[in-house]
Predict the 3D structure of the following.
Amino acid sequence: MATHPIDLSNRVIDSGVVDERLNRVEGDIWELTDNVAIVESFSHCVTVNTGDGLVCFDASGAQSGAKVVEAIRTWSSAPISHLVYTHGHLDHVGGSGAFLADSKSRGARRPTVVSHEAVLPRFGRYTDMSDFNNLINRRQFGGIRADSGLGIGAGEIAPPAGAAAGTSGGSGAALGTFLPADALAPDQTFRESLSLVVGDKNIEMYHDRGETDDHLWAWFPQQKWIVTGDFIIWNFPNAGNPQKVQRYAADWARALRRMATMGAELLLPAHGLPIVGKERIAMVLGEIATALESLVTQVIQMMNDGATLDAIVHTVKVPDAVLAKPYLRPLYDEPEFVVRGIWRLYGGWWDGAASRLKPAPDAVLGTEIAALAGGADVLIARAKGVAQDGDLRLACHLADFAGWAAPDDPTIHTRRAEIYELRRKQELSLMSKGIFRAAARESEAVVKRHQ
């Protein structure tokens, strides 16, 4: 039997020792206190019994939504009156069709779907860019293997079903589109805040930017419960995803500070573990906020001093002791990517190197460097040697130059794939693993064509 999430949370926070998975996705439901349960999935579903129906926060993904609803039904048979999207990512909205199906099967009224107003434009963007979103999600989650320390079997952040195998772009990919056809559009939206009274519960909802521009968090003032969505994920904040739209590190920190003023006694996240107790909650919110604020302050100071992105990326750090906190480990996103996101928000896309303002094509650059080095084979041999010496950052540059210079050479690409596979194994974050594994697959495809 798995450890109760509150028992696990208390032990991990109080000791600082992680001896079990913290982001569990098996679909188990746990009652946390009277009238509150959480289904651990990708993402979780927080369910509150108001006495006049259930208010559910997040629907999980398309491939897990039905299992989430089944779990809820082992806890309560009350109708689902409201489904609240903390934000519009597919692991939070993709399973909403299962909630509608449940209501129909019971002859109950359709749940009222509540969200921030920016969820609707997000849905439109997902429809317009369905293939691209499938592609980047395959790449993002495609680096998971048994030795990675990530994934459903041994992991801290699990991907949507099928994504680890590179066969699915996300929750909606099984339907051929990124956004599932049965995903429910919001019925009630707001801009800054919204107050709801459902049964015997007063619910206050607030908008803050963080991982997304459409994020909300909810506060139950009488009970002192706070529902945080992805503002808390029990990993370093996902504020720098290299393949996704802009994140907002400073706003994220401000949201956490705002939450900390509430004096919550129960914190309910969309990933990871619930947190009980004012002191624990205040500590976790404060430490995550401080980590983000430190990055923002350091980056802005260096930008004001005229530093390039290259200098900033290789200078700004988060102390190892901070990254060792159970709720700040860089196993999904990582501080280096957050630094780039801060630069992009305040400084645009150009990194400060004049040659990269209007660069030569990669193939032209690779061919020229290979010619200067004495051939692509010399470059890839040097890349292998540098990798063996432990400088994988430089090795990957050299391997790319060689691969661009010799795009159809199976020997070159065998070595390039080996270097990127070694790089993947050395990384902690799922995002790095996914991108480096995708690079290895690119070269493996070249080799396969020549077999």
Observations:
- The first strand starts at residue 29 and ends at 33.
- Residues 88 and 119 are 5 Å apart (CA to CA).
- The two ends are 48 Å apart (CA to CA).
- The domain at 360-449 is CATH 1.25.40.880 (Serine Threonine Protein Phosphatase 5, Tetratricopeptide repeat).
